[in-house]
Specification:
This protein is α/β, with parallel strands linked by helices. The protein is 26% helix and 22% strand. The protein is built from 7 helices and 13 strands. The strands form 3 sheets. Strands 2-1-3-4-5-6-9-10 form an 8-stranded mixed β-sheet. A 3-stranded parallel β-sheet has the order 11-12-13, sandwiched between helices. Strands 7-8 form a two-stranded antiparallel sheet. Strand 1, helix 1 and strand 2 form a beta-alpha-beta unit. Helix 3 runs parallel beside helix 7. The protein is globular and about 60 Å long. The chain starts with 6 loop residues before the first strand and ends with a helix. Bound molecules: succinic acid (SIN). Succinic acid binds next to loops.
Length: 310
Amino acid sequence: MQDTPGTVAVLATGGTIAGTAASATDNIGYSAAQLGVQALVDAVPALAGVPLVTEQVAQLDSKDMDFAVWATLAARVAHQLAQPGITGVVITHGTDTLEETAYVLQRLLAPAKPVVLAAAMRPATALLRDGPQNLLDAVTLAREPGARGVMAALAGTVHSALDVRKQHSYRVDAFGSGDAGPLARIEEGRVRRLREWPAGEPLGLDCIAKGEWPWVELVTSHAGARPDGVRALVAAGVKGLVVAGTGNGSLHHALEAALIEAQAAGVTVWRTTRCLDGPVQATPADQLPSAGTLTPVQARIELMLQLMRT
Ligand code: SIN
C-alpha cells in the first residue's frame, strides 16, 4: 500500500521519552523505554491529522545501545526513506547516546530527506514532560520542505548530527552543537533555519553488512595517567584507540608513550580533546594524528567505520 504523500515514519527505540515513573514529581527514579510508539504519538493531540506510519524498532535505555540495534535501525530508516510517500523519518531515542546514533546514521545514510531524532529529559509521566513537544517539533521538521540529513530536535532547537552533543545531565535544554551552533529553531510549529542542512557522502549500509564492528576504545589523558591500561588493551587485541587529550589534544607523557607503542604495534590511534568544544589542531610534529573537530565518541564511531571499510 502506498503511503499518503507527506507521511512521516516514526521509529521508536525507547529512552526517557517512553519512560514512566510511579510519581509525577519523580524525574530521575523512572524506568526508561516503557511506552510503545503508539502511546507516544497519542500523547500529542496536534499529530491527529498528520499522516504517520509507526514502527517499534527497539525498546531500550539508550545507555545499552549496541551495534545490532544500530544496524536494524539504519536498515529500517533506509527502507522508510525509500518509500515515495514518506517525506521524512522521526526516531524516538534516549538522550544518553543520541549523539552517537545521530552520527552513525548520518555517516551511513547521509539522507536526502530529513531524519530527526526526538528525545526527552523527563519521563512521559512527569508534570513538566518535554517529550510530546519534542516529538511534535521532530515531525514538523521531518515535513519541512527541502530539509535533509540527520538532525535532532530538542527543546525547540535543531542540531545537526555532525555537531549534536549532550552537555547537561539534568536540564531540559540539555543539548548543544559546540562551536558550530544550532542548525535551526522551531517556534510555534515553524522552522527557522540558521545554517545549511547536514550533508556528505553516505558510506552505505554495505559498510556494516558483515556485522563485525572492530574493537575501538576510548581512553582519557589526566593527571597521573598510567600506560598500563593502554598496554592491557593492546595485549587483549584492541584495533583502535581514541584518546581524549587535554587542551589541544596534549597527552600525559606516560600515556603518550604507551599510545605511540600501540601505534607501532598496528593499533590505529587518534587524538581528540576532552574540552567540551573546539578541534585538535594538527601540527607537523604530531606523532599521533588528530581527529580534527570530532568529539571523542564521534571519533570512535568514525574510526570503527574506517576500519570496517579497509
Ligand atoms: C536513555 O538515554 O535511554 C535514558 C535517558 C534519557 O533518555 O534521557
